[in-house]
Amino acid sequence: MDTIDLAYVGRGLHEELAAHIADQEDFYADEGVHVALRDGCVWDEKRLRRGATIGLGRALLSRLTDGTPWVGLNVNTHRPLFWFLARPGLTSLADLAGRRLAVHAPHTAPGCFTRIVLRGAGLDPDRDIKTIVRAPGDYGMDLRRLRAGEIDAALVGSTMAPEAVAAEYDWNVLAWMGDHFQIPTVGLAVDTTHTDPDGPAVQAVLRAHRRALKVIHEDPETTVRHMRTFLGGQTPDEARAHYDTHIAPHFTTDGQVDLAIAEAAISAVAAELGVPASVTAAEFYRTTPTAP
Questions:
Q1: pTM confidence score
Q2: 28 and 119 fall within a common domain
Q3: Residue 289 in contact with residue 254, Cβ under 8 Å?
Q4: Sign, CA torsion 17/22/23/28
Q5: Bridge partner list, 119
Q6: Percent of the chain beyond pLDDT 90?
Q7: What's 24's domain CATH number?
Q8: What residues form DSSP beta bridges with 228?
């Protein structure tokens, strides 16, 4: 049996749902590959490059800034699952002016995307907002700080259903990032220096992930059951509402990329990072179906 390390680089449904379904439903075993799911959130690029990664956003940033030859082979969604959650009194992104926002670091993919969204709302992320940088995935602490009044808003990820959390605490969801900025951010990518994208292990993972995407679209009950692994604080009805709003309509059916969305996103990310757009969407993302 072939083996491969597969790292997620952000916690929650956004990164892990398709891989989690493939693992739990034995799709990897069916396809003849042993996949070691690894937490690569704090790995440096050198270590991350040795296996496959789910985080297309981080892989794209790496290719733009240091030339690492990452290639994206599968796309789960073009809409990043991050939300701006705020205390009462704030109702729009424009209301963040002068406020304290907990957010990812600018050099991370979510942090870069956040800055693009804020600029689109007419805000300078360096001058108009009091940013409080914290590690990715520390959203439970964000909720504590919101309750304590230590921050006014937080960019939170998919370890929670933000609408349900907002309703519980009488807070507001100012915006879903996916409504304001689209980019292929999760799926499967490999560094061709170390991993052959056409190798049997990679192709087996791709087949398993396509099967998982099919489950997401055709079997809501199974999908929501797996989602609740990540949404432990939400009821089955809240998890289903989250699925109906953010997962089912926006995850791909076949893992294929929308090159027009990807091209625009690469230009925006390169501009935000202050580097040349040195790779095209067609060069970074594969568009041909994988072998059956």
A1: 0.95
A2: no
A3: yes
A4: negative
A5: none
A6: 88
A7: 3.40.190.10
A8: none
